[in-house]
Amino acid sequence: MIRFEEVTKRYPDGTTAVRDLSFAVAEGELVTLVGPSGCGKTTTMMMVNRLIEPTSGRIFVDGEDVAAVDPVRLRRRIGYVIQQGGLFPHRTVLDNTATVPSLIGWKRARARARAAELLDLVGLDPSTYGPRYPDQLSGGQRQRVGVARALAADPPVLLMDEPFGAVDPVVREQLQDEFLRMHAAVRKTVLLVTHDIEEAVRLGDRIAVYGQGSIEQFDTPGAVLGAPATSYVADFVGADRSLKRLSVTRIEPSDLAQPPVARLDEPAARAADRLRAEGSRWAVVLDAVGDLHGWAGAGELGTGGLVRDHARRMNAWVPVGASLKQAFGEMLQHDAGWVAVLDGARFLGVLTPAKLHEALRRSVDADARGVPRGEVRFESVADA
Ligand SMILES: Nc1ncnc2c1ncn2[C@@H]1O[C@H](COP(=O)(O)OP(=O)(O)OP(=O)(O)O)[C@@H](O)[C@H]1O
What we know:
Blueprint (H helix, E strand, L loop, with lengths): L1 E9 L5 E10 L4 E5 L6 H8 L7 E6 L2 E2 L5 H6 L1 E5 L10 H5 L1 H5 L4 H14 L4 H4 L9 H13 L5 E5 L7 H18 L2 E6 L2 H7 L2 E5 L4 E5 L1 H6 L4 H7 L3 H8 L12 E3 L4 H11 L3 E5 L5 E6 H4 L10 E2 L3 E3 L4 H10 L5 E5 L2 E6 L1 H17 L15
The structure holds adenosine-5'-triphosphate (ATP).
The site of adenosine-5'-triphosphate has 13 residues, from helix 1.
């Protein structure tokens, strides 16, 4: 959808902002450009909508060389979000959001209806916020309006320059989550600039890590964190990259342990026999329809009665596909030695700290070798 071919930008004062840049962004893909200040990220982005012209090389959007497209027509097809939202201070939120549809000749009522729809999509009630002016909004709300405005004409491509940069970390994480949900629904091709590696990893399908004026590594978050291509990238992603990796590694069924399962209404002695046979000290307890209830220990089950007499509630669970970080968070929050992993309501297995560690190690190995995680085997301390 977006393709750079050997693009160089040299400013009149001799500064080379980017050198021989070649990369491509697939349709519907979200690529983050990350790197230290002054490395050329913004220059890269602004060449896509021709706010900056390259010195040499070519850039294609949807197969068309942008140099051959009228810049005004080009920008109508490309949404642009900048830090602080870049809103017009003297226009209401609704009119700000309706800017592009109005520019391309939509009737006022249609443009405003579309703007209201978009405000709703970014979590702002149009009847409350539509009539306000930008300075009557919080920083996070202004940024949402910026995103709504960029989406208003339904452009296939979205350029975002530090769109969540100007808010505190909590609001920032909220905005990122909302944006990811929205992106999953509307699936635009997105190029997003950030200097924050956490944000790059969290949002990007792939990440371009910039050195000075060129890309040092262009790969998935898992690969960048697990197998940095150069020592520069390793330094940039930081010594705690394994921790960051927790948030991008999704739980797969092959990661899970399968402890014995007992039903609430079965005789405890029968469950205790099963635990003994499997050499386990506890069982996961499911209710009559197979939903997670909690757990029960071998000792208590051995004293007879029904499983329900001994079962303890357990609320630590995550859906399959959640990140290892979420699973670890649940464990800590519930002070639990394991979390259940569910597919909808169906119990799939449990993640223990040892299994979590194993999943992390296998994902690093899988990325380095380019194979699926389920195929990676190794011995862990927990097996010994
Ligand atoms: N108009 C200009 N004239 C001369 N040099 C420029 C101009 N615009 C940018 N530069 C230089 O080009 C280099 C890349 O700038 P760019 O804005 O693309 O970096 P960036 O990675 O987006 O940085 P930041 O994260 O600080 O915004 C920098 O050295 C910058 O000083």
